[in-house]
Amino acid sequence: MVPRFFAENVSAFVKALLDCDKSQAKQAFSELSSRYPIAITRNLNAAKQWIRGRARGTEGCGLVASSKAMRLKPYAIDIRASVNPVHYFLNDRDDTRSSYYLEDAATEFQVQGLELDWVCVAWCGDFRFNGSGWDYRDFRGDRWCNISNPDNRVYLRNAYRVLLTRARQGMVIFVPPGDTADPTRSPAFYDATFNYFNELGISVLE
Known about the structure:
The chain has a single domain (38-205), classed as Rossmann fold (3-Layer(aba) Sandwich). Helix content is 34%, strand content 21%. It has helices at 4-18, 22-32, 44-54, 85-90, 108-111, 150-163, 191-199, and strands at 38-41, 61-65, 105-106, 116-122, 127-129, 134-140, 143-146, 167-174, 203-205.
């Protein structure tokens, strides 16, 4: 289990990040980074290699994503595929249904109240930084639609809070590069989010 001190620091960092309080997020990250590594990348394979390179022995690792992350399918992450938490958390590393395989992404529903040692958080266009705050989106039919209901906005924000606080020892955040040929995955949906994380001092994996 992550020491209480680091659990509180991770929570403080995530809160500041979600509050868009850059100065507080930078400070919290600087206090964490030497013993709780966090990285960002536009390359999912690099994220998986980073995770696997750090998980030792029986340390658990896994892939997580928001339940509204509907446009991660091009990266073989389909959050509509059912994930059995028993198999995901308890099966060994040779089982394709286990978190170790880094194939099935558990959502906030499956990971609420549970932890892994190392986590890869796959970001999507549902929750995107706009330069000063967050835009909230729901994918309906063939396009992203604005979420205007305050309660639904709070829920989505909380979903990402859950995902960002599941790792005991460290995490990597995969922010897709987007695709100019796909209007549902415009690079503009992701670039500001990636740049925001980078401005907080989070190291970048190529």
